[in-house]
Design brief:
The structure holds three protein chains of three kinds. Chain A is mainly alpha-helical. Chain A is about 75% helix and about 0% strand. Chain C has two domains: about 170 residues, D-Maltodextrin-Binding Protein, domain 2; about 210 residues, Periplasmic binding protein-like II (D-Maltodextrin-Binding Protein, domain 2, 3-Layer(aba) Sandwich). The relative contact order of chain C is 0.16. Classes of the chains: A mainly alpha, B mainly alpha, C alpha+beta. At the A-B interface, α1, α2, α5, α6 and α7 of A face α3, α5, α6, α7 and α8 of B.
């Protein structure tokens, strides 16, 4: 423990000294900080990749393995033997993409209305919306499930359970709030007035003029919703009854057993589950970041 | 009634239908949220609230017991312990995710460094991962006998530290690390967005005045970023009360939250009652509603604090 | 009116099942589609016995729905509370059975003819599935978990200790003997005697008989202070890994031979063979618990049929084939080492129980398990048991860390359990009141 604190102290001392010796020193110090944090952020991912090439007993050995092993193929075989990753991947895509599309539509409509229009009850309605963000979902888990089973949105023979994951949560309060903030900062009222004078209907204004302006916000909210839904576990567990309807988090969980877990295969499956997400994120990060940068929660 | 005057200053008495009709576009836009909310979320919430006045194990008869659940809850030392842990972890974790996030954003915003996009992307990556994998990795890293961290310490001749066992106090450290790892990038990206919205003139004016970086951060940035900070604070407060997976997995799926209930959080406490650990549905509902009250209370206080100091920028985030 | 109809129906059903039983033949024509839920390796067990089942009931189609233990119980619990979505047959782990035994959401198996099998099961398991008012029976026991002490004979040999189970038992018949062994096999920081020093103390409670029928905590056990002192000694000398026995670290150490012993239900034999140390034939032996601890049972599952099932006849056919026939039980036993609670299975295929197991170096742990199974007393279980159990490990660690004495640790455990179980106790009292068997 002492060593750890000492090391941290030394690190800060070095930074301090560097920052005192001119601009180059300062630059180096700043890069050191950025790289140290980047290392901490990336290390667990690196570990995941390494573990997916190791045997379970290699993963838990001393000293710990920090370099790739040779068990990748075997892990791949074991993974394929125990789970059908591709099917779960398709299920996850179906649920997540439908959810995100609907969420973006409804949230941007709601956020737009709250930011642009004045209507009676606006304040109260908005307060209600904010308040709903604060009730933990677990409070209503049982009644929610009762409801889903009465409607028949349970996947025992059909994919109806997907609806239970898509519909109830798609117009979420956070999304509406987010979109409202964005609209407030980026949609000039003058633009709408000009469009109205040109004789555009309100719907046309929204879909033709406003939606394109909202693109960056769509990207950022889209990613957030995507990540949340992609990793959703508790509700999926309740409504998806058969393995053939399982989404990725459920499927990964089936690989964790009391009897012992094939960690190599589990890590490989996790890598396969995360990789598309990461690639997608890396490609979209430009748009995503600009959605935030353009002032989603700006003053 | 004069129509043009009516549209400017709405008269007090109007029929409900007329109000609806006049604002039909706005209502239509917000309708999906409220309809879905009424249909799918209101019932569970109300049902849950009603349930909190019953003793029910989900398997046999329900028994109405008034506010007994709430009374017992307040009498339970474990509840207070869980609250204490949650607040402790939450408050300490805000040092890295709030201050760390600000500092990182400030560095990336400075003209001295390049590669802003690369770093932003890297810092944000933890948000985009699967919980199952992350928890396995972190519990192996903090492992007592085979963990990477203890291995690293052993290189300096240090004895291994029992992060996840011992007297239970170090589990909190592991939880805070894991929690911060996930959230720091999120906060950083949002702060950075805010900073980039602040005109460069302000910095230049400050540097001409001979202000240090600390001055700039505390006297200029933080006041200007207040609404944004408030937003992230409310979000991470909600996140703090929902803290479950990290402590639960790090303690080996233990409902005690580890030795001495070291990492017993409110959400572990709640889920232990129902529906995951046990089946005390009524009691669990009471816990859920007490947590909701606390979140609302803290959010209100946070809101008030910022509103009082400068009334112009409340949570609404009015336009400059 | 409704009541009369129900009564008539129940009587009819009872009569029907009785007559079916009286004939002694199996109705091959039962048809249906049933869903069976549980956790691994229950699925492997069912698959192993499925051929025999299909032969007997060719018209019943079975679908297995499996996930991990916690998730399974949560999903089952929720579907029962909500009244739909539960499988037709579900596994229930021994630790959870007390939560379910009074539940009206589960079919009273007496109405399907459960009583016919009463004598085929030991009272320890059978009584656990009977409701508190004694009228209903919601589950049929699947397997027992006679507690065995597993040790790495290769390490014992290496350090010059005897490896034969009987000799080991003799050597470890006192706590002094246990400590001697612990010292010999341990190399602090490299090799350890146990995953955690808390476990010997937990073995005293492993029947999960934490509370008596008046719901008073039974904290003091014969020999518990000696036991705790030995545990403290082990911890003090660094002879334990100081990790949870189910953690991945411990699992890796079992395989590597760096954690040389652990105790668990006899189902652990299967864990070792197929998952923990599959290449370790000859590494392990099993014997009874050390220091003269009494015979105990550690876990073991049940099967239940939810009331909401629309295929009860087929479900019951499945359940009885799997659990109440020697063939069904033994097929599953051979596949996954779930030790049958159905006693006729032991004699129908004696070779499964008495033959030496090459994995255990020719020793027959199952014979030992059968012997222990016969000695386990019937106990009283409550819904507080799992919560109470969770606190042994944490109370011992907390006490040891704070430098407490054995007595203080015991007292700490008592307090921890009382606090953590307070609300569950109220529910338990309510259950007993509902059953009409609670006296203030």
């Amino acid at each position: 423990m002492k060593t750890l604190l000492l090391l941290i102290a030394v690190f800060f001392l070095v930074l301090f000294i560097l920052s005192r010796i001119g601009t180059t020193g300062k630059k180096i110090a700043l890069y050191l900080v950025l790289l140290a944090v980047a290392f901490i952020m990336l290390f667990p991912f690196y570990e995941m990749f390494v573990m997916s090439t190791l045997k379970t007993n290699e993963i838990y050995s001393f000293p710990p393995r920090l370099w790739f092993g040779s068990n990748l193929l075997k892990n791949f075989e074991n993974m394929n033997k125990s789970v059908n990753l591709l099917r779960a991947f398709q299920n996850s895509c179906t649920v997540t993409i439908s959810y995100v599309v609907l969420a973006l539509l409804f949230c941007s409509m709601g956020g737009y209305a709250f930011s642009i229009y004045d209507f009676p009850g606006k304040k109260t309605l908005f307060r209600i919306l904010l308040a709903t963000m604060m009730v933990p979902a677990t409070a209503g888990m049982i009644p929610w499930y009762i409801m889903m089973s009465k409607i028949g949105w349970i996947s025992d023979r059909t994919t109806a359970g997907f609806l239970a994951l898509i519909i109830p949560g798609c117009a979420n309060a956070f999304g509406v709030f987010w979109m409202r903030q964005y609209c407030q900062n980026n949609v000039p009222k003058s633009l709408m007035e000009a469009a109205r004078i040109d004789g555009c209907s309100e719907w046309t204004i929204f879909f033709r003029i406003i939606a394109p302006i909202l693109l960056p916000a769509y990207a950022s909210l889209g990613i957030m919703n995507f990540v949340n839904q992609w990793n959703e576990f508790t509700q999926a567990l309740l409504v998806l009854k058969r393995q053939k309807f399982y989404t990725l988090p459920l499927l990964l969980k089936t690989m964790v057993g009391d009897r012992g877990t094939d960690y190599g295969a589990l890590m490989l499956a996790s890598t396969c589950a995360v990789l598309p997400l990461l690639i997608f994120f890396l490609c979209a990060s430009k748009y995503f970041m600009s959605g935030l940068t353009a002032g989603a929660v700006k003053e | 009634m004069d129509k043009t005057a009516g549209s400017v200053r709405a008269p007090k008495k109007k029929s409900f239908g007329r109000i609806l009709y006049e604002n039909r576009v706005a209502y239509a836009y917000i309708a999906p949220f409220y309809i879905l909310f009424l249909v799918f979320n209101l019932f569970p919430m109300v049902f849950g609230f009603a349930l909190s006045f019953f003793r029910w194990d989900g398997l046999s008869d329900m028994h109405f017991i008034g506010i007994q659940n709430y009374g017992n809850l307040l009498k339970d030392p474990l509840f207070w312990k869980a609250l204490q842990n949650t607040l402790f972890i939450g408050i300490i974790a805000h040092i890295p995710i709030l201050l760390g996030g600000l500092v990182l954003a400030y560095i990336l915003n400075s003209r001295l460094v390049r590669g802003e996009n690369l770093f932003k992307t890297i810092y944000f990556m933890p948000m985009v991962t699967s919980a199952v994998a992350v928890t396995v990795i972190f519990s192996s890293m903090f492992g007592y006998n085979y963990g990477v961290i203890n291995y690293f310490l052993s290189l300096f001749g240090e004895p291994p530290i029992n992060w996840l066992g011992g007297d239970g106090s170090l589990i909190k450290v592991a939880v805070i690390v894991m929690f911060s790892w996930k959230w720091i990038g999120w906060n950083m990206v949002i702060y950075l967005a805010g900073m980039q919205g602040i005109s460069n003139d302000i910095y230049e004016a400050a540097s001409i005045d001979g202000a240090t970086h600390v001055d700039v951060v505390f006297k200029i940035l933080i006041p200007l970023l207040k609404p944004i900070i408030l937003f992230t604070l409310i979000q991470s407060t909600i996140g703090m009360f929902n803290l479950f997976t990290e402590p639960f997995v790090l303690t080996g799926n233990s409902w005690t939250g580890g030795t001495n209930n070291g990492a017993l959080t409110l959400m572990i406490y709640l889920l232990n009652k129902a529906p995951q650990g046990g089946n005390l549905y009524g009691y669990a509902s009471a816990v859920a509603y007490v947590i909701t009250l606390m979140i609302i209370f803290i959010s209100t206080v946070l809101n008030k604090v910022t509103e009082e100091k400068d009334s112009g920028t409340g949570k609404g985030g009015n336009k400059k | 009116m409704k009541r009369i109809v129900t009564l008539v129906l129940v009587t009819l059903m009872a009569l029907l099942s009785l007559s079916a039983f009286a004939e002694g033949t199996v109705n091959k024509d039962i048809s249906g589609y049933i869903e069976v839920g549980g956790w691994p390796s229950g699925d492997d067990a069912f698959k192993a016995a499925m051929a025999g089942f299909n032969e007997m009931y060719p018209n019943i189609e079975v679908e297995l729905v499996f996930t991990d233990t916690t998730a399974h119980h949560q999903a089952l619990q929720t579907s029962l509370a909500a009244g739909s979505g539960a499988p037709d047959v579900a596994m229930v782990e021994g630790a959870y059975i007390a939560q379910y035994k009074n539940s009206l959401a589960l079919t009273d198996l007496n109405t399907l003819g459960a009583q016919a099998y009463k004598d085929d099961f030991g009272p320890f398991k059978w009584n656990q599935a009977i409701s508190d008012d004694g009228k209903r029976m919601v589950a049929i026991p699947w397997d027992l978990g006679p507690t065995l002490y597993y040790y790495r004979s290769d390490v014992f040999e290496e350090v010059g200790l005897p490896t034969d189970p009987d000799e080991v038992t003799k050597l470890m018949s006192t706590w002094e003997g246990v400590l001697q062994v612990a010292e010999k096999v341990s190399i602090p920081g490299k090799r350890w005697f146990l995953p955690s020093a808390a476990y010997p103390y937990q073995w005293l409670f492993i029947n999960r008989d934490y509370f008596d029928e008046k719901l008073n905590l039974v904290l003091e056990r014969p020999g518990d202070i000696d036991c705790l002192n030995a545990c403290l000694e082990i911890r003090k000398n660094g002879w334990d890994m100081n990790v949870d026995m189910w953690s991945s670290e411990a699992y890796a150490a079992y395989e590597a031979g760096t954690c040389v012993s652990v105790a668990a239900g006899s189902w652990f034999s299967g864990f070792l063979k197929t998952d923990i140390d599959p290449d370790g034939a000859g590494h392990w032996r099993a014997t009874v618990l050390p220091a003269g601890m009494p015979a105990t049972n550690w876990g073991g599952s049940f099967l239940v049929i939810p009331e909401q099932s629309k295929e009860k006849e087929a479900a019951w056919a499945f359940l009885t084939y799997m659990l109440c026939t020697a063939k069904g039980q033994n097929d599953m036993f051979a596949a996954v080492d779930y030790f049958p609670a159905y006693e006729p299975a032991w004699t129908q295929a004696p070779e499964l129980y008495t033959a030496g197991d090459p994995y255990f170096g020719g020793q027959a742990p199952n014979a030992l398990a059968a012997k222990i199974a016969g000695e386990v007393p019937a106990v009283y279980n409550t819904i507080m048991d799992t919560t109470a159990e969770g606190y042994i490990y944490s109370a011992f660690n907390a006490g040891a860390e704070a430098g407490e004495t054995a007595e203080q640790i015991r007292e700490r455990l008592g307090k921890d359990i009382e606090v953590a179980c307070a609300e569950l106790k109220l529910q338990q009292i309510q259950n007993l009141k509902d059953a009409g068997v609670w006296q203030e």
